[in-house]
Amino acid sequence: MFSKTEITRFSNILTPFYYYQLELLKATLDAATKASKPFNYHIHYAFKANTNTEILELIQSYGLGADCVSGNEIKKAITCNYPPEQIVFAGVGKSDTEINIALDNNIFCFNCESIPELEVINELAVKKNKIAQIALRINPNVNANTHHYITTGLEENKFGINRWELEEVLTVLEKLKNLKLIGLHFHIGSQITDLTAFKGLCLRVNEIQEWFYDHQIIVDHINVGGGLGIAYENPKQNLIPDFNAYFKLFNNFIALRPKQQLHFELGRSIVGQCGTLITKVLYVKKGVNTNFVIVDAGMTELIRPALYQAVHAIENLTSNSNEINRYDVVGPICESSDCFGKALMLPTTKRGDLIAINSCGAYGEVMASQYNLRDLVKAVYGKLDERDKGQGKVVSETNNS
Ligand code: LLP
What we know:
About 30% of the residues lie in helices and about 20% in strands.
């Protein structure tokens, strides 16, 4: 995945750091936009996956909109030139301050999750003498077959409005004169690799649309959220998700009314594979049944393995050894969950080797913390079109030796 020049460059940068291959991000954006174009689908990039300016600007240049979940994400979208009419604002707990930021910026749509939230948005819109466009986030009760922490579309989850509440929602909406219902919103979960879950979503959306039709309502916009997964275990063979199959599936199974537009909120599938956490081996320590490779990145830089038992492919970039050994790759934090991978077969590894933890572009750097008063992890970019020349733009590069 990395050229020799890149690896040489890594050895001159203070570890740990996130390395972003912008060329790969471009290729991914090319694939996503080409696949969605024949159907005129709208893709909003889910900011929560990665909010680095370089990445947001590149994504914006491909015409994607923004799916924001906080007032600060909305502000960031505006500063990165996302047009307000392409910004949606989701979240089960929008604060008054955040709602006001969205109203002040005239965003496209609030994805609303409860009656009390509708009432507050209306009240704040009245004060500003504005009409807020809203979509109802409906809990479709479809199982996404993914990790339970990132499953969102089941009735037991806190997200969305349940089917049996819809009648009451419509009654309330009639009284909320500063809200305009323009859409229905759904999201069943994240890291979904079995596309049949999305077929289930389409069929449920069709049923729900029938219900609205029976109530004389046809909205202009259907938003089916995000969730398309990436290949964590074998990224090299699957660097770009199969956007063609994904969008075709929606085209085959969702029944849109004439002029109705379909929206997506993709995060991980756009940025997941372009980011890698580069870390250095501090010590190799003998254990009872294994050897520990202790690296200088920990759960502070990448929390996904500790939080979701997530698997990220790990490789030693600099070992010249032909011998393979079994290792547990762990971080320096005083918590047993601070482990990136157990019983991994790696070439003989020694202090100073560079280790790549792959597929970290989504929900990696954004979830980093300063636990233990550690430095916040930094980002390094492979420059566009110059990947193999090793002349990438570097945020802060210091000699590590
Ligand atoms: N739309 C909504 C309403 C969402 O809640 C999410 C993600 C997305 C879109 C984007 O989903 P994506 O296309 O990225 O799957 N931190 C976790 C993932 C949390 C996802 C939360 N919602 C992880 O590291 O796996």
